[in-house]
Each structure stands twice: as C-alpha cells, then as structure tokens.
Design brief:
Layout lengths: L2 H22 L7 H21 L5 E9 L2 E9 L9 E3 L7 H12 L6 H8 L5 E3 L2 E7 L5 H5 L8 H4 L2 E8 H4 L13 E2 L13 E2 L1 H12 L6
Parallel strand pairs: 1-5
Antiparallel strand pairs: 1-2, 1-3, 2-6, 4-5, 7-8
Helix pairs in contact: 1-2, 3-4
Length: 224
C-alpha cells in the first residue's frame, strides 16, 4: 500500500474510534450531526483517494516476424462484440505498469505465455502511453494460434483466463490501412476474413486497440 493511502486509512480508522468513544461517553448528542457530516466527508475523501491512487491499466502486443512480415497475436473477447485486439486490462494492487502488462498477457493468452517470461521481454522498455493506458511490444516465437486457444485454463480462475475466445496471427500490413485517420465511434474496422479462424463472432478490430496502435506509430515506438 502506498504511504499516502496508508495515512488516509489510519485517519479514517482513528476517526471511527473517536465516534465510538464519544458515543460511549454519551457525548454524541446535538453535535452528532456535525460529526456525521465530517464522517461522511472523510469516507468520500478516502474513496476518492483510493481511486486516484489506483494503478493504471496496461497491456502487451505479442508479435513474430516471418518472410518480411510482422504478425500480431490478436484475440476476440469471449463476452461482447468489441472485436479483435491484443491483451490488456486493469492492474493488481502494487503492480508496476510492466508487471500489469505481463500478468494480463498471461491471463489473456489462457496461460500459454508465462508472466515471468513476458516481464523479462519488456523489462526496461519504455511503454507506449495512450492516455492513462500503457502498453509494450514483445517478440515471441511462432506457435499455432489454435494451440493457444486450446490451452487449458485454471478452473479456479476461469473468468480471468477465459476472457478471450479465438486467437489469430494478423499481419500488421492488414492493420495499417486503418491507422493514421481519426477513428469513428460507430465504424467497424474490418479484417480480411481470410486471416480469421472459422467460428469468429466478429470480423473487425477493436477501436480502442487501433487507438493504441495509432499512438505507437505516431510516437515512432513500433519495434519493427
């Protein structure tokens, strides 16, 4: 826990103790309303402080090179119809941005890629920042996407490890036509169906992920 958050928690705890002590001594009378107001103000402040100190979300783009082309490992979301994207999401308490990226890479690849290995690939790399979302690139060896999709997941963490459904290696050249222009909220940025496995529910790239890739291209942070 961060020092400032710890201090806020102590203030909150001390104030609770004060209220109980005052009530026990019979002093929580007409002044009780003022105490209640202060109490609610502190609760609100502590909640806002917790939100403000939350670690930022992060992600990772896995890729491999073959025949002069760069292939990106993308996946559909198991729930909803966002479209195809790389991996990323919220942080655990106390994680660094690179640790979050690595743990999301493990979870959203159904555990096929190990968090420790991914962290080793991105350690020391400057993240691409798209707003508060930071992400990294990691080059990996090729493995059939179906093998990743069939990787058994821990039963006790099915929600986290089963967040993605189908996987595919999408050539970066198929993404390029969608980069550079302003992204429209309602537009579907379609992928050539030839690159997608049978049974895919969506045939477009997730707009939020395209925004990430636009930022990487604009900042000259693409590693290829």
């Amino acid at each position: 826990m961060r020092p400032s958050l710890l201090a806020g928690s102590r203030i909150f705890t001390d104030f609770i103790a004060y209220i109980f002590q005052t009530a026990r001594l019979g002093k929580l009378n007409t002044g009780g309303m003022m105490i209640k107001r202060v109490f609610y103000a502190i609760v609100t402040a502590c909640c806002l402080q917790t939100v403000a100190l939350a670690e930022p979300p992060a992600g990772i783009v896995l890729y491999h090179k073959s025949g002069g082309e760069v292939y990106l490992l993308l996946a559909e979301h198991a729930r909803g119809e966002r479209g195809w994207a790389a991996f990323g999401g919220g942080a655990r308490v106390g994680e660094t941005i690179s640790q979050t990226a690595a743990h999301k890479g493990e979870e959203e690849s159904r555990g096929y890629y190990n968090q420790k290995d991914l962290l080793g690939l991105i350690e020391g790399q400057k993240p691409v920042m798209d707003g508060e979302f930071g992400f990294f690139f990691a080059e990996v060896d090729f493995v059939p996407a179906q093998r990743i999709g069939n990787n058994p997941i821990p039963e006790d963490e099915a929600d986290a490890y089963g967040e993605r459904s189908t996987f595919a290696w999408i050539p970066y050249s198929a993404v390029v036509p969608h980069l550079g222009a302003k992204l429209e909220r309602e537009k579907k940025y379609e992928i050539d169906p030839l690159y997608l496995p049978k049974g895919s529910r969506t045939k477009w790239l997730w707009r939020a992920w395209l925004s990430n890739m636009n930022k990487a291209a604009d900042n000259n942070q693409l590693p290829w």
